[in-house]
Amino acid sequence: MSRLIGGLRRTLGAPGWWLGGWLWMAAVAGLIGWQIQMLTVAALKSFDALDTSRMLFGVVDVLRDHPAVGAGLATSAIASLVLGAITWTLLSPLLIVRLAGPRPWSELGGRALSGLLPVLVQSVWHLLLRALLMAIVVVSVMAAPPIVLWILGPLVWMLCGVAQDATRVAVVEHGAAPWSVRSTVQGLGRVVRRPGLLIPCLLLSLGQVVIMGTILWMALAGLTTGSLWGVRLLSALSVGLGLWRVATVVEDAAQDATAPSE
User: Fold this and answer.
1) Nearest to 101 by CA among 19, 13, 184
2) What is the pTM of this model?
3) pLDDT tens digits, residue range 215-224?
């Protein structure tokens, strides 16, 4: 519990990151919404009497009748996810250093810059590890009911995300081997052996998934002025949960570093 509370304290101590993450998320969502509108208008052509606030309500029918719109939206969604992942990876050293504690800007930037390449290398290792674990899960549950894969798959995916956070914190703040795959495996082992760290982080990740599902449902039901503000507040909460998860991992590593050795 102390890890979670300490992580929350670190998150609240970095309001600029919370605001910046929310603005970035809003910009990506706005871009996707604009593309949906433009693609739909192009597909329907002469049907220009469109209620844009309710446009997503009939998006399934539009996709069924106009496959090109679906292809365009899929490309846009994938590009947005990739862009978001790249941005998060590039900024994660700076975020970790900031959450680790207040420092002068010169030291903050220098430490984050020195951790950038190790984080990129470890991200590649974790990508391979995640692919391997997901393949093992798929093969292992092939004979089981589909619901098993639908439950186990996201859990393993989120577990890998927490393990990646642990590895990034270790290489940026605590001197773990920056290039070695051993650091990757140690990050996974660390979170698996620590239910007090893993379970809260999984719950925070699950909270983000629930929020994004709620936002999607609200969009499909049609956005009004009131619900639009609801979406914005939920987006800010999702960003906060993501920062809280990373801050909890930072707090866990900091507690270990300051604990008296036996």
Assistant:
1) 13
2) 0.82
3) 777 766 665 6
